[in-house]
Structure formats: structure tokens, C-alpha cells
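Hi everyone, sorry if this is the wrong subforum. Our group has a chain we'd like a structural model of before ordering constructs, and none of us has done structure prediction before. Sequence below.
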Amino acid sequence: MAILTPIVFLLVILVMLAPKLVAGLPELKGGDAAALVGGTAALMMLIATFAADGRQAMHTAADHIIDGLVFSFRAMGTVLPIAGFFFLGAAETSGPSSACPPAPPAPACCSR
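Answer:
Right subforum, don't worry. Here is the predicted structure as C-alpha cells:
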């Protein structure tokens, strides 16, 4: 599996680059590309757990998913509030999110 994983993801990269090289193929962007990468990762995890655990593979796969979610919440738990305060302070996002009217322009003496 250690050799198969990079090969499979290299194939995923080639599939994503194929529309740049071959005319007429639809491009994978945004959610479609994320679904391809995520689906490939999930399928690879299921294949590895079935190879390692046999009948208990679905339980082991669920444990791996839970461990991954717990890790991601721990890792991103400190970043999300910081990002939230950043977006509240940004002029482009704070007005629409708080339903406030746009501020008048600054006087000429104060603008740069």
C-alpha cells in the first residue's frame, strides 16, 4: 500500500491535468476536484483497512475517520476564531455580514 498510494495520487494529478493537455476534456475545478481527491483517499483507506483487518475493516475505518475528525477539530480549533475576527475586521465582509450600510468615504485630508 505504501507504493500504491503515491502511484494512485499521481494518477489523480494526471487526471486533473489532462484537460490542459487534451482539448475537449472537461476541467475539474473546485468541488469536483476536491471530491476526486477525497473519494480517492476514502477508497484507498477502505482498501487498506480491508487488507489489514478483514471482517473488522468497517469498524477500523470508522475509527480512522473519527480520529481524523478529532485531529482536524483540534488543529483548526485555534485558527477558526482568528479567521472569524479577521473577516469581521475586513471592510469587504463586515458590512454585508452585519447588515450595516457602507461607510462614507474618508475626507481627502485623511486618505493616502
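For your construct planning: The first helix runs from residue 4 to 21. The chain has five helices and no strands.
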